[in-house]
Amino acid sequence: MTMTTETMAKQAPEQDAGAIAVPRLDQQLCFALYSASGLMTKLYRPLLDPLGLTYPQYLAMLALWQHSPSTIGELGAALGLDSATLTPLIKRMETGGLVTRRRDAADERRVLVEPTAKGQALRAKMKDVQEGLSCGMPLERAELKALHGTLTRLVAGLREATANQD
Which of 2, 51, 98, 99 is paired with 70 by a 20 to 30 Å CA distance? Predict the structure, then answer.
């Protein structure tokens, strides 16, 4: 039997009177966000696989289509990734012919990343990805818009709260 948060809640043992009250797993916001993130990635996979993209590569391409060329630092800030995580991702995309990396002529320390013609051509296929994605969404357009607004505020607040932890 597969354990879900619902079956775990039903099987949860009674707490003794002296135990510290800890919310159940299915009551944790962090777990709901973690689960939703994993399931969103899973929903994207069959839509991105035919394009030869992973979900992180898709996000990087979205950022580059919006602002290009970008430095590794700018791209990392847009995606919420550090350079140690982003650099191997960009190298794989470069090997796949999706992006080019070059030194900034004005400052040799900076590496600029931009989509190649092949990377730009993928942009035309994103409508199919978005249409395919909407078929798997259990929320109406208005609910998705409200959720996006709430999550955007949450992310901004969490970035501010964790800014000094880096």
Answer: 51
